[in-house]
Amino acid sequence: MSRIAGVSVREAGPLLRAMYWFAKRRFGAVPEPFTVLAHHRKLMMAAAKHELGAERASRVLPANIRELAVYRVAQRLGCSWCVDFGTMLQRLDGLDIERLKHIDDYAASDAYSADERLAIAYADAMTANPVAVTDEQVAELTAAFGKKGVIELTYQIALENQRARMNSALGITEQGFTSGDACRVPTP
């Protein structure tokens, strides 16, 4: 249970109920971070607009590159909710989630392409404290993905750092999106 309980449907006003309905329809359940953020309506609205906008704008990179980098951030920061939800999103996108078990060995694993390795290493470098990104790394990424691709990758990694740190600070843990029978999100 999170450190701050989420706003329940019974406590929600009409706008929040509509937002919960949309989230449940899209994901099969209302994401707990959403219910916790609902305590601050203006930030919740800003976050919802931002998430939808970032999702719609992020179309330069292949989904596997973007999602692996985001997953790696969640895993490195220990955000179990983000790992759970991110795994579900990858599964729904038709990506191979079995290989996520081997992400710690990505540099030597045949399960990852050269481009995927670049993106995962970049996620590691951006998530390190202090940030450990090098000029050479950005040059390699630019050669592989172009400037727009590097900007998108950087943005998505930074955004996941924000999500994972916020969820961890608030004690939000896995919700059961990918835990076998507990998974409430149907396969398309």
UniProtKB/TrEMBL annotation:
Q: Tell me if Transferase is a UniProt keyword of this record.
A: no
Annotated Gene Ontology MF terms? peroxiredoxin activity
Q: Which domain of life is it from?
A: Bacteria
Q: Tell me the keywords, alphabetical order.
A: Oxidoreductase, Peroxidase
SUPFAM superfamilies (UniProt xref): AhpD-like (SSF69118)
Q: Where is the Carboxymuconolactone decarboxylase-like domain?
A: 52-124
Coiled coil segments of this chain = none
Q: Does the keyword Kinase apply?
A: no
Q: Which PANTHER family match?
A: 4-CARBOXYMUCONOLACTONE DECARBOXYLASE FAMILY PROTEIN (AFU_ORTHOLOGUE AFUA_6G11590), CYTOPLASMIC PROTEIN
UniProt name for this protein: Alkylhydroperoxidase AhpD family core domain-containing protein
- Protein source organism: Actinokineospora iranica
The lineage is: Bacteria, Bacillati, Actinomycetota, Actinomycetes, Pseudonocardiales
